[in-house]
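Thread: Newbie trying to understand structure tokens

Hi all, I'm a second-year student working on a class project, and my supervisor (Dr. K.) asked me to get a predicted structure for one chain before our next meeting. I've only ever worked with sequences, so writing a 3D structure as a token string is new to me. If someone could post the tokens and maybe explain what I'm looking at, I'd be very grateful. Here's the chain:
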Amino acid sequence: MMMHTEEQLSTSPLQFYRRAFWVALTITIMLAATLTLHLYNLKLQQTFTQFETHYQRLNSQLDKTITAIDNIFLAVNVSLEQPLSYEFTRPVLSPVVQRSNYFYQSLGKSSGELVGYGSLQGVDLSLPYWRRVMALGGVFNTSLALLEPLEAIAYVSESGLVYVQRRNHQHSELLSQIVSGGFKQNTDLSRLMTSQRIEVAGKSYFALSNKRISSSGDHTLMVFDAQKFQTLFYDKSLPEAQIYLTDKLNRNLINSAALIASSYPEIGELAPWHDGVTFYKSVDSRPLDLVMTVSEQGFSHAIIYSLGLEFSFILLFIFATYFPLHWLCEQIFVRPLKELFSFIQNPENTQNNYIVPKLWLDEFKQVKAIHKHREQLFARVKDDHQALSDQLLQKQQYLELAGQDKERQGAVLKGVLDAVPDAIYYKNSDGALIGCNRAFERLVKAGKVHFLGKDFKDFAPHFCEMSHIETKVRSQHKPFTQQINLDNNSYHTTVAPFFSEQHGVMGCVGVLRDITAHQQALQLLQVSESNFKSAIEYAPNGVVLVKVDGSVMMLNKAAEQYLGCEKRPGQHVSTLFGHENYQQMAQVLEHLTKQKLRVEKLSLTQSGVYRFLDLRVSLVCDSDKMPKYFVIHIQDVTEITTARLEAERATLAKSRFIANLSHEIRTPLNVIMGLVEMVKQSVTERHQQTRLETVTHAAQTLLDMLNDILDFAKVESHEVSIKNQDIGVSQFCENLFELIEPLAKKKGLDISFKVDDAIWPCLLGDKQKLTQIMLNLLNNAVKYTTHGAVSFSLSLDKNETEIQQIRFSVKDTGIGIKESDQGKLFDAFTQVDDSLSREHEGIGLGLAIVKHEVELLGGTIGLKSELGKGSEFFFSLSLCKQHFATPFEQLSCVYFGDYLPKLMQELGISLVRDISSLPEGTKHLIVANGQLAELSGQFLTDSLRSDIEFIYVSDSELPIEHNDLLAMTTVCENQAYLQSCLAYIWEREKGNLPALKTQSQSGLAVQSNCWYRGALCLVVDDNEVNLEITKNMLQQLGVNTVTSHTAKDICEIVDKLRPELIFMDIHMPEVDGFQAAELLSQCDSISHIPIFALTANTEIAHQQEYLHSSMHGYINKPVTLEVLESVLIKHVKPQRKFFDEAFALQQMMDEPSFLDNMMSKFAEMCEKYLQQLETDFVVKELILLAHSIKGASAGLGFEQLAESAKQLELHLKQEQKIANPELVVELKTQLLKVRAFLNKR
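---
Reply by user tm_fold:
Sure, no problem. This is what the structure looks like when written as tokens:
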């Protein structure tokens, strides 16, 4: 029942009892806290007064110290003015320490020191003045004794001579600083001058000085120890204070701590200790000022601790008083009131644990009746109040919405005004400010609360101009705009009136826009534009500004001079240039405009004074990237262009000279070498053969030198280009080996080479240049090596997916090269040994060409050499891998050995350790060194029947006992050439290479037949000797040759002769080689015949001309058998021989005269055969004729003619008619060919 009553009391006034109790307790505590805070402020004020008194005491101490220092300076000056009362008893110049740049004189420990820069000679120390200076020793000693911080005192003359007395004579660093001017003083700041604090020997010093006379540089200098000077104040200061001693430049002189600020604000009156306090007093009459700073924590730390204890005791007392009082109130007052409310609210017969006294029962009932009546009245009032509240709520909501809308509009307006960077204010009609934005607050440097309701004159008198403008606005009721200056800034000011709904002036609004930066930028722009115009006008290069429509905006003096025109207003750009030049210029301008490019380059020649002009045209666009105007920069390059043309003419002249030199030397060389070869065939005596060999060697040496000169000329003229092609590593190295081996063996040298197994079998690069580089290096190695060995190697430096970096190296055990000579080794026309007695021949171009070609290929040639021990030349090139068209997996290639090399793993070749598990379909079996013995004879025999090709990799020759078994075995004679086998297989599968060296059953190598033997070639040359030499070389190769001295009737000759190949000289009378080749190309029936030029001209330009003409290639003179054979192999198709002269001579019992007689008769027979073929005939007669031609031509060695007759005979016998007329035409062609050959023979 009691609990129920307490819940009902939650809505009675008694519910506020406990809340009131806690509010009273809180207020009491807040009062206690307020009193404590007041006490805290009182104690802070006392502490501040204590620190202030302490600062005044220290400041007085500083005044005394400065006064003492001032007195010392005064005593020094007075002493200098008075005459001496005594004489020096000894010479002051003895002893003197004179150094190279200074002198030093010690006058005794108590008498001081004399020091200065330079020499003491010429310094008159006997003058009375300097005698008085040196007599200051007593004053200086007294000063050192009286002032503990004083470390040294000196008198310094204007000439740099110093008289000084120091406290400590052990170290000279301080003396050096005094003499060298280390204590440099500030000037004209006070009577006594100070220096900055400097560090000397781990200590800090500063100095005070005083001039003797203001117009003289003589002064007295007192040097103080900063640490000792600091103790004068720190010994008497409080630990919370920080002391600084500053000069008039606000420099700290006694310690290294930085000052708080360059200036100190005044101490506030309300709470001076807030954020700490700085005590500072500047006295103009003294050079030093004392600054004392105390942090806020230094003020309040001890006070907070004591007040915290006192506040804790007060809180304890309040709690001890309030809680017992609360308990008594609960028992005496609250409980009866609770029971009264319970009695009122519950029915009368309800039992209650609290018995109402009988004396109070009637009163309780009366109160209960009154309470019920009150509740009824309250219910009616509540209903009426609710209805009224609803009406008020509706009105209130309407007003709130209206107020929120107005507040929102006001906030938006305020935000807009504050966002405007211009200063905006508005006043009422009385001139009082009623509002502004933040920009205006920043302008007047104050908040709204400081000036709202005021006029400008009350808080900003410098706004007087604004007041005048406002007066005009209020009187004339219209806006005014004016530019005014405020605080050195310019403002664009507009003041306008604003009106009420009745059109009355309510006030004015002002807008101030800061245009200072704009005006400054405008001024700078005007200056810059003026400077820009001057720079353009007087620039050394021509400048022309042209509008998009072509009108000239600007033309400077240099442009007028270069273009030979005068400046005219409104002139068009076309008037500046000639017609052709303007057309080029117009195209450039149009191109720039369409493509929106920035720069175009143009070169012109201007008429009048002949000039070469380099023009650069730029397009200038606006911010929208639309063209505005063109800038044409003109540079006179006449001198540069003239020099370049002269250089080109000189280069052309050199090239022509070299070409003529090549042609004129190669032609007689061709004769010499050709005739020597012809004479060799007829000479049998040994000594004559030796002499001919000497002539051949001399001619070849001359040819090599000529080739070197031509190659170097090509390199110098940059006519050399890179022609990449496949490089089979094995073939490349073997070719080098085969070319160098004879030279090495001739000198008794061992030659070898080594190739890294990881190098890719086929690479892409300039094979010709790489071969030339290696041959040059190898030739030099053999030339300069008398005994020992020469070797070359290819090693892998770097391996990537598509590229390998290969290191090429050539080593020898020759004479070596001095380190001092290695620098000039690659210079052109230079040999290390330039003496007349040098042993080795040459013109010194080989290594120069090597260097240029290596650099052209992207490498750098290097050299390691030691005199007497040999040399190594090396370079590295990056070469691309050539991927195999047919993977090795498809070639069924298997490796038999213990492990599979890495390169074969990359190529997908499989490994077989047991020969019995050889995969089915294997075509190529690679057998490693030492594994051949494991192959049984029966297996080898069975394998041969299945056409398996063996590739035996060995360091030695194939064992003899296996020669009869391995009839189809390819031998690679070097273990380092494992990958070479792969390259050969790949090349052979592509059809590019014949098979490798193959062992026959008899143990001899099988050589392929030279299919070009018996072919027919035509040689055209106007030089009889050259013609005979070329014919002789072709006949040595077994080729039938027809010669002609002229190309005048070349088409007719070739049409009749139909040769397999034509060799033609270029320089011939009437019709030259190019013209003849062009004529032949126009004849369809003979245009397919290959034509090769025979030329002594080796210029690249001419070689390119050969290749681009109707010719198929060229051969440089002197012609060699090797070159002729390579051309025949490449361009003569394998077919029956045209004429086998050896067979015909054998048929005539080796009687040349008999053969010539038979040839003449056969020529007549060919004429008859042709006549018979032109007449009508029956098939049987034609069969007999074909048979007759076949027999006669075959007996004389004309195989092609015999084959044509044979084919026609077989055709007629089978068909009994001419079903294929082309066979008859072919027979006629062969007859004409033979007849022409015999007539020319």
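A couple of things are worth pointing out once you decode it. Confidence is low (pLDDT under 50) at residues 1-11, 834-840, 955-977, 992-1009. The CA atoms of residues 440 and 551 lie 49 Å apart. Feel free to ask follow-ups in this thread.
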